[in-house]
Each structure stands twice: as C-alpha cells, then as structure tokens.
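Design request, tokens follow.
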C-alpha cells in the first residue's frame, strides 16, 4: 500500500486504466480500481491523492462509470479519503462530488449503494457546506428512500442493507445538524 502513491505516478496511471472505455480489458480496469481503493486505506497516500485535482476529477468520473465495480471502488476511495479529514471533504465538495455521489443512490447494486452512502456520510461529517449541497441536490430524499426501502437485487446481499441504511442514517444525521427541519419533514412517523 505504501508503495502506491501519486508522487510515483502510479495512481494517475491506474486511474487512466479505469477510464479507457474499450481500450482496456475490463478485468484490468476493475483491478486498477481495486488497487486505487486499497491505496486509499493508507494514510500516507491521502494528502497526495486529495491534493491532486487530476486524481479527484478522475475518481468522480469513475463514480459515473458504466461498470458497477469501478463505481464501487471509486466511492470507497472517496469515503476513505474523506474519513475524518475536513480538508478532503472540502476538496471533494468543491469538485462537485456531492451530486455525483447522490446520483449513485439510484443504483440497484448494493455494493454501489453501500459505498456511495459511506462516501456521503464521510463527506458531510465535518463539512456544513457539503450538508447544504446534499439538501440542494435532492440527496435527502435519496437517503430517506434508502433508509425506508429494501432494495437488494440479490438475496445474498440482504446483510448489506443494514450497512446501507446505517450509512444513510449517518449522512442524514450530519445533514440534520445543519438543518433538522429540512430532513425531518420527509418522515411521516416518529423518528427515534
């Protein structure tokens, strides 16, 4: 993990592999996305990855990729980079990450939903501006629908529903910190 970093040019090369539609074998692209995700677990890579505007923009493009596995790895990477990091939250928020990740909430793939809700929870943890962006982009309604519905396309994914719902509730709690009235109006029953 420590060997993979932006300074060595490895992360940009991996990002390019993920985004070359038709030119790259799908397995290579998926493994490149996985390698980026793994690199994001290493704290020493966080600053380099978040301070590279190219890296940030390519991760956002990966979130909109047609392959669900690449989308998942991109959202996990963003979640890892933004975990308890106000600077990373601001960088991704200023790079239009909120509407991109809110858009992932329409997926039927539970892995994508779990990664996207985790990214939203981490993006809104300390950043009130990102919370406001969630409200402005219709993210509250997306999060509420994820909390209120069961959406697994595969019975083997049912255990992940709890994770998706927990992440969505955490993101809603973060947004409620900024404007509780905006979030609670979507619940027609008592909120615990």
């Amino acid at each position: 993990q420590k060997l993979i970093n932006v300074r060595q040019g490895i992360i940009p090369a991996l990002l390019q592999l993920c985004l070359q539609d038709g030119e790259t074998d799908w397995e290579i692209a998926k493994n490149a996305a996985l390698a980026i995700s793994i690199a994001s677990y290493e704290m020493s890579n966080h600053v380099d990855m978040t301070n590279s505007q190219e890296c940030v923009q390519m991760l956002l493009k990966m979130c909109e990729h047609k392959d669900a596995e690449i989308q998942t790895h991109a959202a996990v990477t963003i979640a890892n980079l933004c975990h308890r990091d106000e600077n990373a939250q601001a960088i991704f928020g200023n790079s239009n990450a909120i509407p991109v990740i809110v858009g992932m909430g329409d997926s039927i793939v539970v892995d994508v939903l779990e990664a996207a809700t985790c990214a939203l929870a981490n993006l809104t943890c300390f950043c009130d501006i990102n919370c406001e962006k969630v409200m402005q982009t219709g993210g509250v309604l997306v999060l509420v629908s994820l909390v209120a519905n069961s959406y697994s396309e595969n019975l083997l994914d049912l255990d992940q529903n709890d994770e998706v719902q927990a992440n969505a509730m955490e993101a809603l709690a973060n947004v409620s910190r900024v404007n509780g009235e905006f979030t609670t109006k979507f619940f027609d029953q008592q909120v615990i």
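Comment from the thread starter after seeing the answer: thanks! The longest helix spans residues 158-184.
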